[in-house]
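Allow me, if you will, to draw on your knowledge of protein folds for a short while. The matter concerns a single protein, recorded as an amino acid sequence and a row of backbone structure tokens. Kindly check, if you would, that the fold set down in the tokens agrees with what the sequence suggests. You will find the record immediately after this paragraph.
***
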Amino acid sequence: QVQLVESGGGLVQAGGSLRLSCAASGRTASRYDMGWFRQAPGKEREFVSAITASGGSRIYGDSVQGRFTISRDYAKNTVYLQMNNLKAEDTAVYYCAAPRNGLGSRPSSIYQYDYWGQGTQVTVSS
């Protein structure tokens, strides 16, 4: 089992940047693929990005491709989401998540993930 805690959210102006962190705890935390999702008020939870345990594969949602970068620090058991050129439509609660059995064939599906953090709010003012 793995526990996830997000941090780094806040208020930023459009065009600005933020870096979110997801600290994973547990003896085998570094072996998990990891993902980021977001949920805006009144909307479904949306896939943002994912990274494999090895760090060798990264995928992004269409709406963030080219602006967001996912990475991980094995020494700190932490996954990061660097968000650049933020837009008002990026405003949401951001969650990190981990699948018990890997990303599989549905890395962008919320149902692939078993462990979730509590979320961190990102607000982009226009």
